[in-house]
Amino acid sequence: MRKTKLYKFSVKTLTFREVRWARTRLIITGLFTGGVILWSLLAINQRYGDVFGLGHIQQSALINENRILQNQLQYLTHKLNGIQRQLNLLGDRGNEMRLSADLPKLDEDLRKAGTGGVDNRIDFTSSKSVNSLLNSLNSVTERAENELRLQSSSYEEIQKAYEKNKVRFSHLPAIKPMEGFYNKRGFGMRFHPILQIMRPHEGIDIDNEAGTPIYAPADGIIDFTGHKGGYGLTLEINHGYSYKTLYGHLSKIIVNEGQRVKRGELVARCGSTGLSSAPHLHYEVRLNGVAQNPVDYFFDDVHASYYQN
């Protein structure tokens, strides 16, 4: 009876020790295997550029990318500042063109008001240096866009004014209507050679042979043709823009009332009709009905033939 009990006790003790040792071996094997796997994963991650996103190589790459980004932002900011300087020069040139188109300059206050942006600082990233560069780039870009918009609008205004002025200039009596000699002081009070009295002379006399061609000094519409007192055979042209011209002492009129004429077009021929002592053209320029000195409108180096085909 005693031997049997002892045998049973020994079997139970052996079984408990074996189980505990097996568990210990399993833990040790697991730790070793886990270490090998972890080392292998780290080696693979290192070899293939942090494929598991463990962050060591990625952090180094981000630092390098951040440095490249800062350099590029500085370069772009420098380029945009150069563009802004060019836009400023363009604005100065635009002001010169505005003056030539009879438009007021865009003063500095207006340009600043039109191109100044709102200084809204934004934190794009956690990097202060990158934020500073991005905000600077954003500010320069906004100013350049506003300046470009302002100058584009200004140039459109210049273009419209130029087209309008081009039409107005084509109606300005700017060329001498007939070749010949004239007295630059012939306008104003003078002694009339036929009436023998002092009286105002509201134009100038251009001397030349009878039949010398007379040309329209600007675009316009024939307003009157016929005899007119001491002017003799007379022609009047309405050029628009409050300008009218008169041609007296003619021998022949080529055009008809209501006819449109262009600058340089033949309209009449010189004569000696009316109160005239010799062949010449009496020529008047009126602005809003007030007599002007025609000499002030002459471009002596521009001939009517320049406008003829």
From the structure above, extract its key features.
3 domains; 309 residues; Glucose Permease (Domain IIA)
Provide a quick synopsis of the model.
Helix content is 46%, strand content 20%.
Task: Give a verbal description of the structure.
The structure is a single chain. The protein has 309 residues and is an alpha+beta fold. It folds into 3 domains: 1-44; 59-170; 181-307, Glucose Permease (Domain IIA), CATH 2.70.70. The protein has helices spanning 2-47, 56-100, 108-115, 128-170; strands at residues 181-182, 188-191, 198-201, 204-207, 213-215, 220-227, 233-240, 243-248, 250-253, 260-261, 266-270, 280-287, 290-292. A hairpin with a 6-residue loop joins strand 2 (188-191) and strand 3. The longest helix is centred in the first third of the chain and has 46 residues, at 2-47. Residues 6-11 have low confidence and may be disordered.
- Looking at CATH, which topology of the largest domain would you report? Glucose Permease (Domain IIA)
Q: Oligomerization state of this entry?
A: single chain
CATH architecture of the largest domain: Distorted Sandwich
How many strands appear in the DSSP assignment?
Answer: 13
Distance between the termini: 148 Å
Tally the structural domains: 3
Share of helical residues: 40-55%
N-to-C series of helices and strands: HHHHEEEEEEEEEEEEE
Rg for CA atoms: 49 Å
CATH class of the largest domain, named Mainly Beta
Low-confidence segments: 6-11
CATH superfamily of the largest domain: Glucose Permease (Domain IIA)
